[in-house]
Amino acid sequence: MSQIRTCPDLPLLVSALADYPAVRKVALRTPAAMEHKVALITTGGTISTLGAPGGAIPKRGGAELLGALGEAAEGLDVEVIEFAKIPGCEMTPARMAELATTISRELSRSDMAGAAVTHGTDTIEESAFFCHLTVAGEKPVVFTGSMRTGSEPSWDGPRNLLDAIRVARWPQARGCGAMLVMNEEIHSARFVTKGNGLALGAFHSPACGPLGRIYNGEPMLFTKPAMARRIVEPKVDTNVLTVTALSGEPLDTLSQALARHGLRGLVVAGFGSGRVPLAWVKPLTQAVQDGIAVVLASRTGAGAVDDPYGYGGAHHLRSMGLVAAHEMPAPKARLKLMLALGNAMDSPALREFFENE
User: Fold this and answer.
1) Which of 288, 256, 282, 253 has its CA nearest to residue 269?
2) Among residues 144, 145, 188, 174, which one has the least CA distance to residue 36?
3) pLDDT of 228 above 90
4) Are residues 337 and 250 in the same domain?
5) Spatial distance between the Cα atoms of 304 and 59, rounded to a whole number of angstroms
6) Is it the case that residue 86 has pLDDT exceeding 70?
7) Domains in the chain, number
8) Is 6 an annotated catalytic residue?
9) What is the residue range of 130's domain?
10) Which residue in 6, 42, 43, 46 is the catalytic one?
């Protein structure tokens, strides 16, 4: 039996470019125990796509996605919250903040065991990481999507969705923060990143590997994240830019970024473990002295940010006040810096937030 509820305070994108109407909630119930209820929050992405004359576009809602599970959905108690129908490339920090608020609201209910979130894979690691930092509590928050469209015979959406729902209601997944479940792997949102644009096994966690796997439809956890997870308010300051160190890149690239009106934060994706063209060292040091928060990441997206060099490398830059983003791709460091500034962290708190959490 289906039940439709309307939530007037949350926007819903009914297509990639449509305006926001009201949110639909569809309650799909089976005889499962109430403590196993899962909030399925849909945002669009490839998992929701169907073929169209110009190519696949987000069309499927939560009820249609659950319907694709067939008999596998028996015994699941799932309540659908249709948040949006957008491709991953249209997700923004502001929408991530709305999404985090929606997840927190649903998980505050005593009958919810966890949340599964369907999302476009272009930005799924960023939204998952945002929620890892902003959704409090022990209940699992599990992101999933698909690499193939719903019109392809090898569509991976139903398998990924079923696995995500099972992990979201699994008691052993509590306390792990936000996770990503795809291709029968369970990853921490802190470390997961997309390593291939098209392959089914697109996601990996360079620092630590997956937390667990799905075997024969059942989740198995090998480890839990050991790093501290500070929960902050989903408030962002978007006056943050990212620059990438490139061979032969002129100083003007950095100068133009630093001259941006209202700039409060800068993420630098450096060579190797955090180096930049030597001509960048002085202006970056000056930017820190001028009160701009400068975070140093690695173009590799993995590894510690530091080095043993004496010619103005990563260690020198850190000694001059740049903050290291260890084991973190620049897009994630950008979001984390937006949150730090949005939560009015001072320099010591910001450094702790990045370097030890």
Assistant:
1) 253
2) 174
3) no
4) yes
5) 41
6) yes
7) 2
8) no
9) 2-221
10) 46
